[in-house]
Specification:
With about 325 residues, the protein is α/β, with parallel strands linked by helices. The chain contains ten helices and 13 strands. The mean pLDDT is about 95.
Length: about 325
């Protein structure tokens, strides 16, 4: 029996036009450009300001570009996975809405709520579906409209997040390319340090929750930073060891874009140099489930068929994951 691998065969992305830079942000809250850059390395973030639009519209534009670039027939897509924590509605799933808007009439679909690790989780599920032989074309679209749950009076979090979406097409291959290995994990104790408190069944909407700003992102930054560095470094180094990847043979490291200091610390632990790391946090901020695919989209022309990539994330939950893959195509 021939072994089937899942391979990324295309990527599309979208970020809004509006740029919220640090100077404008410092006029809204007690912060400064120097403080933000030194603390997290972000210069600006994109904000989706179109009235009546939501996360599904970000995802739709990323998918439309993906379809245009790859020439894939939307009728042949048989699964759509949407990692997101900013759903259009509590229900139905945002993937249902995206599928309708994108005309993916033959694709069953579902959302994944794994915060910043959502894309890695989605890629793992998509790859297993492809490897089973039951699915031929799967789209994973990481999309988040973080401005909807960001408190712009909270100086500790408002500089971190932006809006965006990026989608990848996953197909089967018998070549020596595609997704090779994965490490996934979680620690539920992390819920206390990074969450949105209200809006679910535990604390439903009330005047109290609204007045207390409990529908926005809450984060204990020092704790999250410590866990993120140690966990991302540990699983990335482990991925290198068990696949005999050296610093010289790793072409690209694609980390979740949450904090420049985290990225630098993890790269140092891996023994790789800055030129091997794909980084765009300074332009987009933390777009949660969209950061890793947005990096693939941003730097697609640098990626060559057969390149060794390690993708690593850490997010609320706590959740984490790392995937080792060989890139599937050249971009002309």
């Amino acid at each position: 029996m021939t072994n089937i691998r899942a391979v990324i065969t295309g990527v599309g992305g979208y970020v809004p036009d509006y740029r919220l830079n640090n100077q404008e942000l410092s006029s809204m809250v007690d912060t400064s450009e120097e403080w933000i850059i030194q603390r997290v390395g972000i210069k600006e973030r994109r904000i989706f300001r179109e009235k009546g639009k939501a996360t599904s519209d970000l995802a739709l534009r990323a998918i439309n570009e993906l379809i245009s670039k790859t020439g894939v027939d939307p009728n042949t897509i048989d699964l759509l996975i949407c990692p997101t924590i900013t759903s259009d509605l509590p229900f139905p799933a945002t993937s249902n809405i995206i599928g309708l808007k994108a005309g993916l009439v033959n694709a069953f679909n579902f959302d994944i709520s794994a915060a910043c690790s959502g894309f890695i989780y989605g890629l793992e599920i998509a790859s297993r579906m492809i490897e089973s032989g039951a699915y031929k074309k799967v789209i994973v679209v990481g999309a988040d409209m973080m401005s909807a749950i960001t408190d712009y009076t909270d100086r500790t979090t408002c500089s971190l997040f932006g809006d965006g979406a990026a989608a990848v097409l996953i197909e089967p291959t018998n070549e020596d390319i595609g997704i090779i290995d994965r490490i996934l994990g979680y620690d539920g104790n992390g819920k206390d340090y990074l969450h949105v408190k209200a809006g679910g069944s535990l604390f439903s909407v009330s005047h109290k929750t609204i007045d207390s700003h409990e529908h926005f992102v809450y984060q204990e930054g020092k704790v999250v930073y410590r866990y993120a560095v140690s966990t991302m470094a540990e699983i990335s180094v482990e991925m290198m060891k068990r696949n005999n990847i050296t610093a010289e043979s790793l072409n690209w490291f694609v980390p979740h874009q949450a904090n420049m200091r985290i990225i630098e610390a993890v790269a140092e632990r891996m023994g790789i140099v800055r030129e091997q790391v794909l980084i765009n946090i300074e332009r987009y901020g933390n777009t949660t489930a969209a950061t890793i695919p947005l990096c693939l989209w941003d730097f697609e022309k640098k990626l060559k068929k057969g390149d060794n990539l390690i993708l690593t994330s850490f997010g609320a939950g706590f959740t984490w994951g790392s995937i080792y893959l060989k890139w599937g195509y050249n971009t002309d």
